[in-house]
Amino acid sequence: MHTTDEILAAVAEAVHEIAGPDVHEVRPDKSFADDLDVDSLAMVEITLALEERLGVAIPDSEAKNLVTVGDAVEWIGAAQTGAAA
Amino acid sequence: MSSSTGTGRLRSAPGPRHTRILGVGAYRPVRVVTNDEIAPRIGSSDEWIVSRSGIRTRHWAGPDETLADMSAIAGGKALAEAGVAPDGIGCVLLATSTHFRQLPAGATEIADRIGIRGAAALDVSAACAGFTHALALASDMVRAGTVDHVLVIGAERMSDLLDHDDRSTAFLFGDGAGAVVVGPSDTPGIGPVVWGADGSRADVITQSADWRRLRHDPGHRFPALTMQGPTVFRWASGTMAEVAAETLERSGLTAGDLTALIPHQANLRITDALVRTLKLPDTVAVARDVVDTGNTSAASIPLAMERLLGDGRVTSGGLALLIGFGAGLSYAAQVVTLP
C-alpha cells in the first residue's frame, strides 16, 4: 500500500522523466494534456511506468479517463484497496 | 522385397557451428516524401506528425522500384560486401508483407534476378517482425549445416498497402529494402532468438478485409492496413522492453556490452520509450532511421543497420540488439555481431 503522497510523488517523477515538466509542477489540479504537455502516447508510457513502480494494473479504458494528476492519484489509491470503479 | 534390406545409413547435415552476418546492403527509393505532402490529405500538419512519430520524411517507391527491383539491389550489395558469390547462397528468405501475389513466393524472382541458381527461395510472413524471424531461421540453417550461406532480405512497398486517407497511419510508413548474408563463423555472431506471437490480438494490426472480399464484392475498397495505434504503442514500449531484457540475459550480456540498439523503426516515440525503460548507457548507439525513412516494416532493421555502419556511428564487430515487432502480434529479438 502506498500513501497518497507516495503516489503523487511517483506520478510526478514519471511525468518528469517521460514528458519533461519539473516534478514540482505536477500538482493534483494540473491537467496532463493541457498543463503538462502530456499527449496520449506519453500518457501510455506514464501508465506503464506507474504500473511497474506502484504494482497496480491501469487498463487503457481507465487511463483515458484520468484527466488531471489528482484523478490519477485518486484512481490508483482506490485501485490499491480494490475500491476503484 | 523388404524395404529394410539396403545398407545405406541416414546421414545428417554437418554441424553445429557458429554463424554471423557477413555483409549488409540497402536500397532506399529515390522519391522523398515530406510531411507537408501528406498532411493536407489527412487534415494534419508537419508539427503534429513530428511530435507524434518523430518522422520528418520517408521514401516512397515508384513504378520502376518494384519489390523485386529494390530487393535485388539490396541483396546484391549484401553479397558484394560479404564477399560471397551468388552460387554460394543456399537459400533466399524474403521477409515482407507487400508481395501482392499469393504465388509464387517473392524470393524466387529475386534469387533469379541476382543470379542465385539451385537455391531454396521462400517468403517469411511475420510483418514488421519478419526480418528478425528470417534472420533466426537463416542462422539455424547455417548452424545446422543445411546450407552454408543464406541471403535474408526485408523489403516493403508499404505505400501500396496504406490507406492514404487514414490519418492514424498514412504518415507512418515508407518503402525500401535491406539485406544481409548469413554464413558460418569461428565465433558466435548471432545469439539465441527470443520470439513469440499472440494471435488473440490479430486485430490490433491487420488489413480491413481479406483478398477474397474483392473476389466476391469487386466494388469493395482495397483491403488496406489498419492499426490501433495506442494499443500497439503500449505493447511495443512495455512488452518489448521485457523481450529486450530476456534476449540480453539469454545471450549472457548486459546493456553495457552493446554497441548498438536497432529496434524495428516503428515510431521514434517507441524507440525513445525502449531506451528509457532499458536504461541504456550513453555509449550505446541507438538507430533512429525512422526520422527520415519512416516505418518500412520488415525492411527497417537492415536499413537502420546499414545506416549506422555507413554513418560510422558503429564499427564492424560490435554487438547490436535487434528487436522486430508488429502485426500478429509477433516479435523476434536477437543480439548479433555487426558485419
From TrEMBL, chain A:
Record's subcellular location: Cytoplasm
GO biological process, any: lipid A biosynthetic process
Modification type O-(pantetheine 4'-phosphoryl)serine: residues: S40
Domain Carrier positions: 2-80
Xref: PROSITE patterns: CARRIER (PS50075)
GO terms for cellular component: cytosol; membrane
Domain of life from the UniProt record: Bacteria
GO molecular function: acyl binding; acyl carrier activity
Function, as annotated: Carrier of the growing fatty acid chain in fatty acid biosynthesis.
HAMAP family per UniProt: Acyl_carrier
The protein, known as: Acyl carrier protein
From TrEMBL, chain B:
Pfam families: ACP_syn_III, ACP_syn_III_C
Pathway in which this enzyme or protein is active: Lipid metabolism; fatty acid biosynthesis
Record EC number: 2.3.1.180
PANTHER family for this protein: 3-OXOACYL-[ACYL-CARRIER-PROTEIN] SYNTHASE 3, BETA-KETOACYL-[ACYL-CARRIER-PROTEIN] SYNTHASE III
Assembly and oligomerization: Homodimer.
UniProt-recorded name of the protein: Beta-ketoacyl-[acyl-carrier-protein] synthase III
Beta-ketoacyl-[acyl-carrier-protein] synthase III N-terminal domain ranges (all copies): 122-199
NCBIfam families: fabH (TIGR00747), PRK09352.1 (NF006829)
Segments passing through the bilayer: none
Localization (cell): Cytoplasm
CDD domains: KAS_III
SUPFAM superfamilies documented for this protein: Thiolase-like
Family, per entry: Belongs to the thiolase-like superfamily. FabH family.
Chain intervals for the UniProt region annotation (ACP-binding): 265-269
Top-rank taxon: Bacteria
